[in-house]
Design brief:
The chain has about 475 residues and is an alpha+beta fold. Helices cover about 30% and strands about 15% of the residues. The chain has 3 domains: about 25-135; about 145-385, Sandwich (Jelly Rolls), CATH 2.60.120.650; about 395-465, no CATH class. It starts with about 50 loop residues before the first helix and ends in an 18-residue tail after the last helix. About 40% of the residues are buried. Bound molecules: 2-oxoglutaric acid (AKG) and fe (ii) ion. One of its GO terms (cellular component) is nucleus.
Length: about 475
């Protein structure tokens, strides 16, 4: 297994040009059809020609492996369709293999399902197959990330400091992103974790990677040898238990919360707090599409190995290519990170609210409450993240738990009213802070009422809307003036 990709490839100027290699089967983008002499392979698919490629591919998702194999033998166009690895990923997940935590990864979903070696892979010349649907995923899994992550405009750069005091964080920085370059150097995991060391120590531990639970050995095989447009991302919230790690300051612990972020008010919930820490491991190109973190929490994200490119927008921004439903419960963005970068990065970068930065190994990034962010790994990497509630964001979190109760996530099922639970705990242990949080909440509501009016006939609508979109005002600080 090759664990050693070039660690500085994202800084390499020679990788600037979008040097996408040719598709291994020779499949071409649709546009090439109009310049090509010779036969168009699509002409041979008979009555299936009435279906657009998108629909044809959707149809294949319903087929079993035998049908898919046989259909692929009928003609070159259908062969190209039946080779699409996403279809085989579906078959893998639905088969017995999908429930296994340990198996041999063979470089593609198809090869893994069919148990094929490299030599046994079919190589048929499909150079007369013209299809964006078949070609695009290949382009997306081969884009040169450095063309998006370099030349960050100075005004967009996320601020960088060696470290911050809690006073500075609370007073000036709790609502802004920043990167700390000398904050996690003393963590034992910063010094000792590499993909290789994790493999030797935790190879048999089963971790969650999106829809699958795989041993670290299987995940690493997959991670180091796949062509997926959106590679499966290991994102495990039970990692500390699974790896028997102690967290917090003290003898023999793995890491601790940086001091600068101060007290985390969700700690008042003890074991009843929502999921809040994750181990994140993924290959180059993996990452997180645009989202806001759950329950209006803030977060820190520490890179142990690798490098992550972050592009962020304040809570009230409208992010190009990201559509948010009226009640903000649904976020629709292009299917993959690569597609977003290809289509929307240039436009997004020009917006004055845009913030960008690269968080390198040994550095930690602060994600303020409700900020939009997209993250992409520029190298194979390991990260740790924790979500927390700083005092200055208590109003936002209370507001979220109260007014967006349908969007609250991460609590155990038996916790039916997280807002009440949190308020009770604050009342018992931090009554002064609760009063301040409720004051912030009332202020948000007052601002909201000032905008939508407050007559009774609109009461219900306001109630609905107040669980809805958020927006800011031109006066004062944009984040301060956000309304939920
Ligand atoms: O490291 C990443 O991919 C970012 C993770 C993230 O944004 C999150 O955990 O909410
Ligand atoms: Fe996030």
């Amino acid at each position: 297994m090759n664990l050693g990709r070039d660690p500085s490839s994202h800084q390499d100027d020679s990788s600037l040009g979008p040097s996408i290699p040719s598709h291994p089967l020779g499949i071409k983008p649709l546009g090439n059809k109009y310049f090509a002499a010779g036969v168009d392979a699509r002409k041979s698919i008979g009555s299936l020609q009435v279906l657009p490629d998108e629909m044809l591919m959707q149809l294949l998702e319903y087929m079993d492996r035998r049908t898919l194999k046989l259909l692929g033998y009928t003609c070159k166009f259908l062969f190209a369709c039946c080779m699409a690895d996403d279809v085989w990923k579906t078959i893998f997940l639905q088969s017995d293999l999908g429930n296994k935590s340990s198996f041999e990864w063979r470089g593609s979903w198809r090869a893994t399902v069919l148990g094929l070696s490299h030599e046994q892979r079919a190589r048929v010349d499909c150079s007369n197959v013209f299809s964006d649907v078949l070609h695009r995923p290949f382009v997306c899994s081969h884009i040169t990330l450095s063309q998006y992550t370099k030349n960050i405009p100075a005004a967009n750069e996320i601020d960088r400091f060696e470290d911050l005091s809690y006073e500075d964080f609370a007073g000036k920085w709790s609502k802004k992103p920043f990167i700390l370059t000398k904050c996690i150097q003393d963590w034992p995991v910063t010094k000792s974790w590499t993909l290789k060391s994790l493999l030797s120590e935790y190879g048999r531990v089963v971790f969650r990677a999106e829809a699958v639970d795989w041993t670290f050995t299987s995940y690493l095989q997959y991670m180091c040898d796949n062509q997926d447009e959106s590679p499966l991302y290991l994102f495990d919230r039970k990692f500390a238990e699974k790896m028997s790690l102690q967290i917090g300051k003290g003898e023999g612990t793995a890491y601790w919360k940086p001091d600068c972020f101060g007290p985390d008010l969700f700690e008042l919930l003890g074991a009843e707090r929502p999921a809040h820490r994750w181990l994140i491991i993924g290959p180059e190109r993996s990452g997180s599409t645009f989202h806001k973190d759950p329950n209006a929490t803030s977060a820190w994200n520490a890179v142990i190995q690798g490098a992550k490119y972050w592009i962020m927008f304040p809570p009230t921004a409208s992010v190009p290519g990201v559509l948010v439903s009226k009640d903000s419960s649904e976020v629709t963005s292009p299917l993959s990170i690569a597609e977003w970068l290809l289509e929307f990065h240039a436009e997004a970068r020009k917006l004055p609210e845009c913030r960008e930065g690269i968080c390198m190994a040994g550095e930690i990034l602060h994600v303020p409450s409700c900020w939009w962010h997209l993250v992409v790994n520029l190298e194979d990497g390991i990260a740790l993240t924790e979500n927390f509630v700083p005092q200055s964001q208590l109003g936002s979190v209370l507001s979220f738990l109260k007014d967006k109760s349908d969007q609250v996530s991460g609590f155990e099922r038996d916790i039916t009213d997280p807002y009440r639970l949190f308020v009770e705990r604050l009342r018992e242990e931090r009554p002064g802070l609760l009063a301040e949080g409720l004051r912030q909440l009332a202020e948000k509501k007052r601002r909201w009422d000032a905008v939508v009016g407050d007559d009774d006939s609109r009461g219900e609508q306001r109630q609905k809307k107040s669980t809805g979109f958020s927006f800011g005002f031109a006066f004062g600080d944009a984040e301060e003036d956000e309304i939920f």
